[in-house]
Design goal:
InterPro entries: CTDL_fold (IPR016187), Glid_motil-assoc_lipo_GldK (IPR019866), Sulfatase_Mod_Factor_Kinase (IPR051043), SUMF_dom (IPR005532), SUMF_sf (IPR042095). It holds the Pfam family FGE-sulfatase. This is Gliding motility lipoprotein GldK. Keywords: Lipoprotein. The chain has 2 domains: 229 residues, paralog of FGE (formylglycine-generating enzyme); 111 residues, no CATH class. It is globular, with a radius of gyration of 27 Å. It has a 4-stranded antiparallel β-sheet with strand order 1-4-12-7. Strands 10-9-8-11 form a 4-stranded mixed β-sheet. Strands 2-3 form a two-stranded antiparallel ribbon. The chain is an alpha+beta fold and 461 residues long.
């Protein structure tokens, strides 16, 4: 017992002598942290504002009575997510899908790196000739990856992104590679004009989500498996519905938009449409994953989640600091003092082109509001994270108000679009669409929480 006490005292002395805190309570010191503005986003300083109708409720909807609320600071995309940006997501999913199929087939054939052919695309836990698995990979493979899950036999196994995918059919390395690539395209009987067409139904992105609100309100005494109870994996087909250009308008010729709008470079900087609320949420999850993969590679701290804005955040950002303005530019009119329209919408009955655009325009067209946000009115309506309830303003909190009702499939859209009249462009006008619906006039932009609370619009004024 004396030896144990002596050893404890010696260890305590060594710990105290080897520390630079002099025995004081100084806290755990991490790396010096500074906020980093996300690429393509602008900081919207938090503050209080009067949410709701700033003008007469001409449509007599009675769903937006005024209410003073406060929102925290956040970053917001300066523009709507463009076709080019969403195509980056699609290309990433396509690349990962192909690599997954190559890795699975290599695993089934017992092929490993070093032998050429499809074996070069084997899972990273498969060591090549002359190589050994790391202790971590061996343990994880023996205890988890080799077992998989009930839903996915290959769950947890990491893809090998080092070898480049081969796109030229004449250079495919073996028949297994040909088999995988052929499975990604529609059969010849469903192709036309001599084009081999990608089967977009194969492009599915899976991500995990936790219902934090439900978990926080769970006051049951049985905490066994409580966390897993609120975790779910969501598979989302992510390719935009390009047929919306035809389905949304009866007796109208919009075939060129259906054929070219999403994939052609001519429309790369135009806002993506034909994306449902579920797909917009999947995009946010991927954007977070993609950024944090880079952060991990560089040894940096992870960033906050990218997400859709709440309805209150969207309206606050759209107002651009103006307390009771009708539109994002502050005034009650849709034209400036030279007679030019200030947004892309339908100014007159049947005259879509009076504002200089027939359909959508580039995401950075027209002047931004005072928060440097473009097209917060017109161009495309935008998904928010909030569920629509006509009476929600009566009961939501005055601090960061939101209605995260998972059972309510009606999701709030804001801002109006190229096919809407001016009423829907007003910063206080509310509208909604079903979460699984895609439209030719609905897009989205993302936000990211600002770390810290000292940056508020109230302090800046």
């Amino acid at each position: 017992m004396k030896k144990f006490i002596a050893l404890t005292a010696t260890l305590s002395l060594l710990i105290s002598c080897g520390s630079s805190d002099r025995g004081e309570l100084v806290g755990v010191r991490g790396k010096k942290w500074r906020p980093e503005k996300p690429y393509g986003m602008t900081l919207v300083p938090g503050g209080a504002y009067i949410m709701g109708k700033s003008d007469d409720d001409l449509a007599n909807v009675m769903d937006a009575p005024t209410k003073t609320v406060t929102v925290r600071s956040f970053y917001m995309d300066e523009t709507e997510i463009t076709n080019s940006e969403y195509r980056q997501f699609v290309e990433w999913v396509k690349d990962s899908t192909i690599r997954t199929r190559l890795a699975i087939l290599a695993d089934e054939q017992g092929l490993k790196p070093g032998g050429g052919g499809i074996g070069e695309y084997a899972f990273k836990d498969q060591a090549g000739e002359g190589e050994e698995q790391s202790a971590y990979d061996k343990y994880m493979y023996d205890n988890y990856w080799s077992l998989g899950t009930d839903d996915d036999f290959y769950a947890g196994r990491k893809l090998n992104h080092k070898p480049k995918l081969i796109k030229d059919p004449q250079k495919y390395p073996d028949e297994y590679y040909v088999e995988v690539m052929d499975s990604m395209y529609l059969p010849e009987s469903e192709s036309y004009n001599g084009l081999k067409t990608m089967d977009v139904s194969k492009l599915v992105y899976k991500y995990s989500q936790m219902d934090i609100d439900a978990a926080a309100k769970d006051d049951s005494k049985n905490y066994r498996n409580k966390r897993s109870k609120y975790l779910k994996t969501i598979p989302v087909p992510i390719y935009p519905d390009t047929t919306v250009w035809i389905k949304d308008f009866a007796y109208s010729y919009n075939d060129p938009m259906h054929s070219d709008y999403f994939w052609h470079d001519a429309y790369g900087e135009y806002p993506v449409v034909g994306v449902s609320w579920d797909q917009a949420k999947a995009f946010c999850a991927w954007r977070t994953l993609n950024k944090n993969a880079y952060q991990k590679e560089k040894g940096r701290q992870f960033v906050n989640f990218f997400r859709l804005p709440t309805e209150a955040e969207w309206e606050y950002a759209a107002r651009g600091g103006y307390e009771s303005a009708t539109y994002p530019w502050g005034g009650p009119y849709t034209k400036n003092d030279t007679g030019c329209f200030l947004a892309n919408f339908k100014p007159n009955r049947g005259d879509y082109a009076a504002d200089g655009a027939l359909y959508t325009v580039e995401a950075d067209a027209f002047e931004p509001n005072d928060f440097n946000l473009y097209n917060m009115a017109g161009n495309v309506s935008e998904w928010t994270d909030s569920s629509y309830d006509a009476s929600s303003y009566e009961y939501v909190s005055t601090m960061n108000p939101n209605v995260p009702d998972q059972a309510n499939e009606r999701k709030v859209i804001r801002g109006g679009s190229w096919k809407d009249v001016a009423y829907f462009l007003q910063v206080s006008t509310r509208d909604w669409e079903y979460a699984d619906s895609a439209r030719s006039y609905i897009g989205f932009r993302t936000v990211q929480d600002y770390m810290g609370t000292e940056n508020t619009a109230n302090q800046m004024r």
